[in-house]
Amino acid sequence: MSKVLTPIEIGGVRIKNRVFLPGHTTNFGINNLPTDRNAAYLSARAAGGTGLIITEAIRVHPTSAGRSSTLGSSDDSCIPSFRKLTEAVHHNGAAIFAQIMHAGRQANGDATHTAAWSASAISWTKGGQTPHVMSQADIATMVKAFGNSAVRMKSAGFDGLEVHLGHGHLIQQFLSPASNSRQDNYGGSLENRMRFAVEVLSEIFSRVPGMAVGVRFSADEFMPGGLDPQHMLEIVEKLNGLFDLNFINVSHSAYHGSFTIATQIADMSFPHAPYRSHAKLFKDAFPRIPLLAVCRLDTISQASELIDSGEADMVGLARPQIADPEIVNKFASDRNSEVRSCIACNQECIGRVEKNLPISCVVNPEVGAEKKWIEIRKAKQVKKSVLVVGGGPAGMSAALSSHVAGHSVTLIEASAQLGGQALLASTLAKRDRFGLLVSELSEKVFQSGITLKLNTKISDSSEILNEFDEVIVATGANFEARNFGSGVRVIAADVAIKELANKKSETKEEIVIVDDQGTWIAASIAEQLASNGYRIHVVSPTASLFSQITTYSKLALIPRLKSLGVLMYLASDIAVEGENCVITNALNGEKTEVSQTSMVIDCGPRLANDALYQQAPLAQSGRIHVIGDALSPRTVAEATFEGHAIGAFLDLDLAVSTLGGD
Fold first, then answer.
1. What is Dmax (Cα atoms) for the chain?
2. Helix-strand-coil percent breakdown of the chain, rounded to 5?
3. DSSP character at residue 506
4. Exposure of 495 in the CB half-sphere (CA atoms within 13 A)
5. Taking the chain, what is the end-to-end CA distance rounded to the nearest angstrom?
6. What homologous superfamily is domain 383-478+608-658 in, according to CATH?
7. Phi, psi (5° rounding) for residue 515?
8. In the predicted model, is pLDDT for residue 272 greater than 80?
9. Which of 211, 262, 373, 601 is most buried, with most CB under 10 Å away?
10. Angle value at C-alpha 162, between 555 and 90, nearest 5 degrees
11. Closest C-alpha to 512, from 491, 528, 531, 532
12. Cα 463 from Cα 590, distance rounded (Å)
């Protein structure tokens, strides 16, 4: 048996197992206070078996709020709201620590009319807001704010505190020579750069004696001139000599507009546990301090390896517990085959946070609406016969949700396999985890008793409507290649994947990819074909590159494309002239000729395959529903959400209004 299910004590707090939910932003807050939505979300993970929950960052001062959906602890009025969190988590058997922090220079207050604060006048990214340089009086104010927050969190019933010294937030901005150019006694030498952290921890330990207190830090900033593991070993050693740290949470990265930020939430292009070595390094150096380890630990089985090998004392899984709050219970009861796997796409978790939206999840559309879904399942429904047309993620989700609601379900798919375009995407090397989504949904369909008909096409809706009470059309969307001129073959994105994904080019054939949409479709094809030896030119008619991909993934993607020699053209259009492709920049008229272009891949807008819905007789329109790309070509996130919702409600408008955010 793995040690991962054995209890552990941290700072006098008994924790029932070695799995924790790391702090991660949800954007469920209102007016910087936790809501019932926060409580229901954390309560579901506690009920799912995790031993310890660490809250998302709780800002200690208004200058760190950034937006109203974050959580803050600036005055005593916050205590009752946070007490609801602790009570909900304790009720379901988990311990809960409060993560307290100040975001520093990246907390520009566009929403709150506050300036960013930092150690020095160095912005977090090119074009970012130049922060206010904190005076010594400001520093004293912030030290006191950390202490006040600690007292409030103790009053709210938290079992412990995690002080955030990492991820490029304010304290790390003082620690790092890459972000601290001060000339006073808070800058320069390591002792000076540590002074703010020491003062903060001194204040906290003096204000909440006896409370479990630990730190989260970045083992490596992955930045020129920044902190690396050897620097952090020295810093942690000095801090541990000054304070009785009850635990250390070893993370990595800095919040900076470069590759480093992509490591913080490593997507499916990274291997499993890419920074596992950090945990071992610090555990070897500090064997007596409980060590918490994080980063792309995809399953409990994989994560438990760190416990059993002595590399860590607890393992943190954030996205896997977003995807399946029951993951720990399922592991404990030998039901791993039932786990809904995180596919590390970053689309609905950090991708939505980047847009200031509440998090969701591609594989778990119930995220953020846990309380509402409990109520939905309790509601009695009239049992109906339901036909789902289309076996992609939308159709499979709709069929499964309808089945769970008690309806008699038939699922029809025109091809020989379930999965739709997600199955096609999974054939690309860096998008292979979409295969997990397809295989897990397919397996549930096969096991559910749903009537499944593959290789079955439907051409006439009127006959179908007479056989079923409700029809759900989930027939997806079609890629279509446009006309850019004559002389060079132009193919659509799906054809390119099928024909070229596994074909090597020995002669570096020239391929032009036209990307109107800014999604992973063009990016994945470009990376795959460049890896196969093709010389790739990506042309975007817009002024931005891959605009629909979250920054947290894009800042790793672009360096990979650059290393593969992919050439990129913004605000540009193409024209095919004989065997050549001419790329014209719309801003300055500059032309680039790609001689002897072997083909053009068109990643333009897809068209909804909605003929079955459009031809439905008006009298039957209330019984036929259209979802996913057949409703409007978007992403797999909308497909799974709408499928899950329509199955429960058989009315998409009602579902959307019912499941709306708090």
1. 81
2. 40, 20, 45
3. S
4. 14
5. 42
6. NAD(P)-binding Rossmann-like Domain (3.40.50.720)
7. -120, 95
8. yes
9. 601
10. 115
11. 491
12. 57
The distance of Cα 594 from the centroid of its chain, to the nearest Å, equals 37
Extended beta strands in 226-297, E state: 248-251, 291-293
Burial per residue of 569-603, b for 16 or more beta-carbon CB atoms within 10 angstroms, e otherwise: beebebebeeebbbbbeeeeeeeeebeebbbbbbb
User: In whole numbers, what is the pLDDT of the chain averaged over residues?
Assistant: 96
H or E segment to which residue 190 belongs: helix 190-193
Burial of 272 (0-12, 13-18, 19+ CB in 10 A): middle
Residues in the chain: 662
Q: With contact defined as beta carbons under 8 Å apart, do 248 and 286 qualify? A: yes
Nearest to 122 by CA among 187, 48, 204, 216: 187
Across the range 180-206, mean pLDDT stands at 98
Q: Taking 70 as the threshold, does the pLDDT of residue 619 lie above it?
A: no
From 312, 309, 229, 303, select the one nearest 272 (Cα to Cα).
Answer: 303
CATH class of 490-605: alpha beta
pLDDT in tens, 51-74: 999 999 999 999 999 899 999 999
Helices 36-47, 370-378: inter-axial angle, 10-degree rounding: 70
How is residue 591 written in tokens?
């032309």
d(CA 392, CA 423): 8
Q: Phi-psi category of 628—alpha, beta or left, where left has phi over 0 and alpha has psi -120 to 50?
A: left
Query: CATH homologous superfamily for 3-371?
Result: Aldolase class I (3.20.20.70)
Q: Which two tokens stand for residue 265?
A: 């939430």
- DSSP for 116-159, please give it: -EESSS--SSTTPPPPEEPPHHHHHHHHHHHHHHHHHHHHTT-S
